[in-house]
Design a protein that fits this description.
Elements: H1 2-30, H2 33-52, H3 54-58, H4 65-90, H5 95-118, H6 128-160, H7 166-197, H8 204-225, H9 229-241
Helix pairs in contact: 1-2, 1-8, 2-4, 4-5, 4-6, 5-6, 6-7, 7-8
Length: 248
């Protein structure tokens, strides 16, 4: 059963890499920065999930410490373009957003640097450097969900009077849900760390929750950036059927 949880996490990594490939191809065509930043985040996250979870499937207890440190740094570095993506899309001109990006980056880089220096890179509750890094990658997920939901509210109102395509309003909803599932994955990390701190075997539930949340996250982003024509038609038809405020 525990092996199934690791397979779920590896599946999440595979989804990330596929999505990153599509986004990076899109960025080459559009020459736009947001697609590039999100594609880099997905690429490094996918690599992290695949390599981190490989030992269990290969019959290895764990990677040697130097490889483990390199794996953790892969994810830490990957969160940086995610932060820049959020600011570029939602708060390009707000000074406070720049300070938030800097603070989250500092949390992650300082946390991982100290964890590397002490050799304690595993997420455990009695490691203060893990908490510092955890804050660094959890705050962006909360930020993403909040910003997308705010944009969703405005776009939904405009869509109902024909000033905004329904698919655009839906895209913000998908981004908000993406942020929500990312936050869920972050708290699954804490549950995993709780198991480690208690000296117990890693819980199948925490692994499955983490992998499932990541797969859901990538699926939502896929629908947001590469929606099938059938999905676009369904959203458009549903918006037409819904009554407008005047009809209500």
């Amino acid at each position: 059963m525990e092996e199934n949880a690791y397979i779920t996490a590896i599946a999440a990594g595979t989804f990330y890499l596929i999505a990153s490939y599509r986004l990076l191809r899109l960025s080459r065509r559009t020459r736009e920065r947001p697609e590039l930043l999100l594609g880099l985040y997905f690429a490094l996250s996918g690599l992290y999930y695949l390599v981190y979870n490989s030992p269990s499937l290969l019959g290895i207890d764990q990677w040697p410490l130097p490889i483990g440190i390199a794996i953790e740094w892969t994810y830490t570095i990957g969160v940086l373009p995610y932060l820049f993506f959020i600011r570029a899309v939602f708060r390009r001109d707000d000074a406070w957003a720049g300070w938030l990006v800097g603070a989250c980056s500092a949390f992650m880089l300082v946390g991982m640097t100290e964890a590397t220096a002490t050799g304690r890179v595993e997420p455990v509750l009695d490691n203060p450097w893990f908490f510092m890094e955890w804050l660094g990658y959890t705050i962006p997920c909360i930020w993403m969900g909040c910003e997308a939901m705010l944009c969703r509210q405005g776009a939904k109102k405009r869509a109902r009077i024909g000033l905004c395509p329904a698919i655009v309003a839906n895209r913000y909803l998908l981004l908000a849900l993406f942020g929500g599932f990312q936050v869920l994955a972050c708290f699954a990390d804490l549950y995993w760390a709780h198991d480690k701190a208690g000296g117990e075997a890693v819980s199948m539930i925490s692994d499955a929750l983490l992998g499932g949340a990541e797969i859901a996250s990538v699926t939502l982003l896929w629908l947001a950036f590469f929606p099938p024509r059938s999905y676009e038609n369904w959203i458009t038809e549903r918006a037409v059927i819904l009554p407008t405020p005047m009809e209500e």
